[in-house]
Amino acid sequence: MSENLPPLPTLRVFEAAARHLNFTRAGEELGMTQAAVSYHIKLLEERIGATLFVRHGRKIDLTDVGSTLAPALSGAFRSIANAFDAAKSNVGSTLLISALPTLSAQWLARRLGAFQVLHPEFAVRLDTSTTLVDFDNDNIDVGIRGGMGDYPGLVSHLLLRAEYTPMLSPALAASIGGVKTPADLLKLPFVNDGDTWNAQWLELAGLPPTEVLRGPNLGLGSQYLDAAAAISGGGIAMLTPAFYREELRDGRLIQPFDIVGVDALSYWLVYPHARRTLPKIRAFRDWLLAEAEILQNQTV
């Protein structure tokens, strides 16, 4: 379809000339000479096979064909200008973040308001997903994912190590007279008995390989949902301590031991190398890295 259209510069010249009804003024608007305007008009007339302007002494007017074409082109160029302005506005003022559900629910979402206060010029949109971002096709500015930090074509910043330790409700611990040694955990059900962190942590605690007591095995798919089940007394959950400071402080969960495992995977902030200088990405990166440092230095 596009191969049947005249060149865009030629159409732009005709639109300006039709609006001004003056080749000289059209040339001034477009930064070209009157002769260049006349040349483009002649090319367009040859392409259409009809005259577009008629002269009345020193004045010009549109022919019937020109009168039909001019408003359609003016509307088309207005639509292009509006779309371009909207695109610039979206790129400049809206920050689109894709982050893992647990990290979003237990940390990021609770702090984004502070970023908005510091940067009211940006509107923030948060999408929670476990799917890797395709920055070439998804409308996303930055992603927060779990991995090794090796992402070709992306800038990556380490935010937080994926640590884990068992947590449970005080009521569940009290049901066996308290949890005093790691072995006591084996008297209680685990929310997700298929979690690989269970065996890894038990080994760190010096316990021999063993099957944990079968619990509901809910398979909830997100750590924060496992935590919700643990808070309700449904069993022991292997959780990242940094994400549950508030729950530990107010007593909804207890962390009976200081033994903490560290997963090979970590949480990373990632974005395309080509977009690293965008103001909204720089502002969010600097703020988030500072928040991550605060989180790691906090104690319950």
Automatic annotation (TrEMBL):
Tagged with keyword Repressor: no
HTH lysR-type domain sequence ranges: 6-63
SUPFAM superfamilies: Periplasmic binding protein-like II, Winged helix' DNA-binding domain
One Pfam assignment: HTH_1
Gene3D superfamilies: Periplasmic binding protein-like II, Winged helix-like DNA-binding domain superfamily/Winged helix DNA-binding domain
Alphabetized InterPro entries for the sequence: LysR-type_TF_proteobact-type, LysR_HTH_N, LysR_subst-bd, WH-like_DNA-bd_sf, WH_DNA-bd_sf
PROSITE patterns hit by this protein: HTH_LYSR
Matches recorded under CDD domains: PBP2_GcdR_TrpI_HvrB_AmpR_like (cd08432)
Family: Belongs to the LysR transcriptional regulatory family.
Protein name in UniProt: LysR substrate-binding domain-containing protein
Lineage: Bacteria, Pseudomonadati, Pseudomonadota, Alphaproteobacteria, Hyphomicrobiales
